[in-house]
Specification:
Strand content of chain A: 35-45%
Structural class of chain A: mainly beta
Helix content of chain B: 55-70%
Order of helices and strands of chain A: EEEEEHEEEEHEEEEHHEEEE
Oligomer: heterodimer
Low-confidence stretches of chain A: none
Distance between the termini of chain A: 24 Å
Strand order of the largest sheet of chain B: 1-2
Radius of gyration of chain B: 20 Å
Largest sheet of chain B: 2 strands, antiparallel
Number of helices of chain B: 4
Number of strands of chain B: 2
Number of domains of chain B: 1
Strand content of chain B: under 5%
Shape of chain A: globular
Chain lengths: 250, 131
């Protein structure tokens, strides 16, 4: 992981092997896999498979896909969920406890009426998958790029040499710019991170625009129902050592 | 255990670690009665909300501001920190380990630590006890 200026100046580097004597698994978890000598990122898909493998060791554990929960109720001694499968079959399950780890749009949280307090940033993030050898432009395997205002970026490999790189940068809020406008200026925006290479040499594969929030559920527990993960809290994805934080009031 | 990565996923994984321990110990204690009125699920709620609000949320907001600085007018304090880290790999190592602040451990009696789930769906003491 490196922090670079938009012109390619390296400001800081994190080499995870530095922590090999401190922690048993010096890996970093990200939404896509990549591994090298200095870094092992475990993709979300792989992580899910690892979790499933561990869960399968227990007879009492069962994964049911395609079950959408609609209601969550409880008594003094149990909690019950009901809903329908994607093929329309109704289901009801009763247990001692229910944990809603069902993502940012959590049905469990909404059904309980728990508010997600905080704020939504007045901007959006644009995630682009780009076929271009970014390593030739001086990028490390994962980079935070400081470019000022909306010209920051997170630039990461998403896999081996044949896979695209992910370049995520800042964009305006939906109120200030439609998807159409924002997508139309992708070439103009992306070329800033290509460090002199021609945009025509890169191929943009996929684009996704998303809202970013700093929000936390008012409570993670109501009786026998609990919330965890994105169902309980949301944050924008940039992170770093507090060491590099600056109070700039921006 | 060590954790690192974006604070959304990482806070979620450390939530799960804390909640797993809290639930297993709560259910096990229905027989053992060692908790003396402590409610571990309330402790989970308090610990994890505090971690999100004071660590994940604060640091994510600060990191966003750092990434959005003007690259041609970086504050001197920031540049000084960059230089210090460059000259001292051990300092960088310490920064990297700061993600461990996201982890919260419940203070549990040893009989309720490191529980695993038995075949009957009831938690039992793990052979590898503790954290």
């Amino acid at each position: 992981m490196q922090m670079q200026k938009i012109d390619g100046t390296v400001l800081a580097s994190n080499d995870w092997t530095l922590t090999k004597n401190d922690i048993p698994y010096p890996y970093t978890l990200m939404s896509f896999p990549y591994s090298s000598l200095t870094e092992c990122r475990v993709g979300q898909h792989t992580l899910a498979q690892i979790c499933k493998k561990h869960c399968d060791r227990y007879e009492s554990f069962k994964v049911l896909f395609n079950h959408a929960i609609e209601t969550v109720t409880q008594t003094k001694t149990s909690a019950t969920v009901t809903g329908h499968t994607t093929t329309g079959e109704p289901f009801t399950y009763t247990a001692s406890y229910v944990v809603g780890a069902d993502g940012g749009k959590s049905t469990v949280r909404k059904y309980l009426g728990v508010t997600l307090d905080g704020f939504t940033w007045d901007e959006t993030y644009l995630a682009t998958n780009v076929f271009y050898p970014f390593e030739k432009l001086g990028y490390a395997e994962a980079n935070f790029v400081i470019g000022g205002g909306m010209d920051w970026a997170i630039v990461c490999r998403t896999g081996d040499k044949s896979a695209p790189w992910r370049c995520t940068y800042g964009e305006v809020s939906p109120q200030k710019g439609s998807d159409e406008e924002v997508y139309a200026r992708v070439p103009k925006r992306l070329v800033k991170f290509l460090r002199g290479a021609k945009f025509e040499e890169a191929k943009v594969d996929q684009i996704a625009r998303y809202n970013v929030h700093q929000r936390c559920a008012k409570t993670f527990r109501i009786g026998r129902v609990l919330l965890a993960g994105d169902a309980a809290h949301l944050t924008q994805p940039m992170y770093g050592s507090p060491f590099f934080e600056v109070a700039n009031g921006g | 255990m060590g954790v690192s990565g974006g604070y959304g996923l990482t806070t979620g994984i450390t939530d799960a670690a804390c909640l797993g321990d809290a639930l297993a110990a709560t259910i096990r204690d229905e027989q053992l009665h060692l908790l003396g009125g402590r409610d571990l699920l309330d402790e989970y709620n308090t610990l994890r909300r505090n971690v999100f609000l004071n660590v994940s949320n604060e640091r994510s907001i600060a990191a966003k501001k750092t990434c959005q600085m003007d690259p041609e007018n970086l504050p001197q304090a920031f540049l000084d920190n960059v230089k210090a880290a460059e000259q001292n790999p051990d300092l960088t190592r310490k920064h990297m380990l700061l993600s461990s602040d996201l982890q919260t451990l419940l203070d549990l009696p040893k009989e309720l630590k490191g529980l695993e789930w038995g075949p009957n769906g009831q938690p039992k003491v793990n052979a590898v006890n503790g954290y």
